[in-house]
User: Fold this.
Amino acid sequence: MSSSDRPQQPGQVSNLPGVTAYLTGHDESTGKAIVQSKRPGEWSSYDDKLMGFNVVYTTSQFPPSLNDNVDITKHDNLTASNKLGLVNPGGTVCRIVDFAPGFDCMMHRTQSLDYGVVLEGSIELLLDSEQTQLMHRGDVAVQRATMHAWRNPSKTEWARMLFVLQDCQKLTLSGKELKEDLGRGVAGLPPSGNDA
Assistant:
């Protein structure tokens, strides 16, 4: 499928193709699997439109209940509330993030276990130890509640990552409890609230 088949979407800041989430379910009369809904990306931009977020899906409990579409209702209510931080307390967040050429996001820590998959371009993982790791399409970072940032090293091309963030138990290191740290913060992005 060419990128012209997936046009950019409202609120999208990058020149990368738009995205669609396909939610599956069951036909109640046959019990067979169906594509229950198709949801085009809904984008929010941050840091002067240098970073774009599309929240693909969330869950609010573990394990989630799929009965009577409870999970879909909870996801829709959460995203409409504008209270979702980077992490959803007691649940998960699947998010696509686009990074502008040369953009460095803030150094931050979430109380979560995250899988970050490079979908387009290359991304540098930056750690507070000053260690860096260049990641390419298909590479996966398993982010374990560490202080980190992301940098798009390209001067001309946008980069895209898919993140799945899972709330985790409180993390202690040398007797000190590590909490969410959003560094300088990002206007419009609330704290996750899962480290209270």
About this structure: The mean pLDDT is 95. The CA atoms of residues 60 and 175 lie 29 Å apart. The longest helix spans residues 70-81. The first strand starts at residue 20 and ends at 26.
